[in-house]
Design brief:
The complex is a heterodimer of chains A (281) and B (261).
Chain A lengths: L2 H11 L6 H10 L14 H15 L3 H11 L10 H17 L6 H38 L5 H39 L2 H23 L7 E2 L6 E2 H8 L3 H15 L4 H18 L4
Antiparallel strand pairs in A: 1-2
Chain B lengths: L1 H14 L12 H12 L2 H14 L14 H14 L4 H39 L3 H29 L1 H10 L2 H13 L1 H12 L5 H14 L3 H28 L14
Helix pairs in contact in B: 1-2, 1-4, 1-6, 2-3, 2-4, 3-4, 3-5, 4-5, 4-6, 5-6, 5-7, 5-8
Classes of the chains: A mainly alpha (281), B mainly alpha (261).
Amino acid sequence: MKTSDQEQVLEDLEQIKVSNKDLNRIFWRSFQMEFSWNYERQMNMAYTYAMIPLLKKLYKNKEDLSQALKRHLEFFNTTPHIVTMMLGLSAAMEKQNAESKDFDSSTINSVKASLMGPLAGLGDSFFWGTLRLIATGVGTSLALQGNILGPILFLLVFNVPHILIRFMLTRLGFKMGTGFLQRLQQSGTMESLTFGAAILGLMVIGGMSASMISIGVPLKIGSGEGAAPVQDILNNIMPGLLPLAAFGVIYWLLGKGFKATTILIGIALVGILGVWAGILG
Amino acid sequence: MVTALLLGLVAFIAQSEYALGTSLLSRPLVTGLLVGIVMGDITTGVIMGATLELAFIGSFSVGAAIPPDVVTGGVLGTAFAISSGAGPETALLLGLPIATFTLVLKNIYLGLFLPILAHKADKYADDGNTRGIEAMHLIGGFGLSLMLGMIVTISFYVGSDAIKGVLDSIPNFIQTGLQVATGILPALGFAMLARLLINKKVVPYFFLGFIIVAYLNVPVTGIAILGAIVAVIMVNVMQGKKVNLATNQGGVMSDDDDEDF
């Protein structure tokens, strides 16, 4: 799609204008993406922080604003340097949501959930695996000789490309979002998108649950040489059985209406007591 | 005392890289230079920073894994090495235990304190209070910078022996217990997210993703690519069914190539 055409279409439809200034604000606020990172929902507060100025502009009604804020306070995690891609996309979808009543707002989070994994895969390997290593190589070789240019070049090699990419992705994400969504609404495939996005999102959540939740049991059955570690037995039944059980229990507790804070403290106690009793480790 | 405070400031600035685009200010290569300036020996600071940088090269966060803390490890390791007039090995020797000790405190902060702030933010969201959410985010971030700054100031002031003593005095099962808890905590985030997406039609895909990773150890990127392919296939199947119903002809597949992704 030609950019100029797209912008023309946008301007015709536009009720609330999302200006470059709004996108720049998102770009600047995105710098704090890891500032309030936490174990439970990771970048959730920072993502909301970046979206707040736009959300305030889009939703004049308190109830709608509250819904939008809660939407973005859900779990989110990706490579911080490319997060503006997602923010731009979210901005476009929020705009659409604010303008049309029949927009399914749950797609905003489905899209986030389904794209954060692939983006992180791409971003982590490029920024952490490639660019950082180049910068470190250049920087340390000079610094080991006591040259002050080492640390300075290190920062420049990494951050000049980083900031340029971060800036461009804000615009790109927004443009893709609006074009993409208009096409979808015209062709009536929004339902398919939600369905597809939920599939992708859940597969990624399932995969992350298997790889990122870690629980180990140090117990052994029997004694001496022939002792069988319980963990091995569990792994034989099914690898990741305990992480899956933990996920299941917490999922169930949430459904029972338990507050996340209560569950959080419960997890800390389970960890400490489990180690004390020698069950976990 | 002034030196201790200035070193705390260096740690504060370094940790604030997370407010500045994750721009690598926290890396020992950078903090080594800053510590060198504070201690009045720039050349040694830069060299020690580079040594520590290489030692900590694998120490960066990907996904939910938090590595030993390079801020306190880098700043204090370099500072103690310069102040004792010893070589870069000393920086390493002192830096690593400090980084590990800080990780314990950081895990408590990131695993317990910040989620509590996040839950307060949820409450503010109910009222549409954007200021409240912004405050929680900023307090959370600056709080950690401040905490690391204080750790550095106090540790440099009292010396590294005392640090080791404190570490030893915390019962081991509490330290390990919190470590275990941080391994379980992501389950809470995932479960909350899953609650958002799950409906009857898509439940199996969670298990599909889980099983593939559990048995085959596929990295998350791989599962995402696979997920995208499965999603495209299932969407096509769904549309195919619709076409069948609409035209009342068996075996007619949808042939429009909707590029959903």
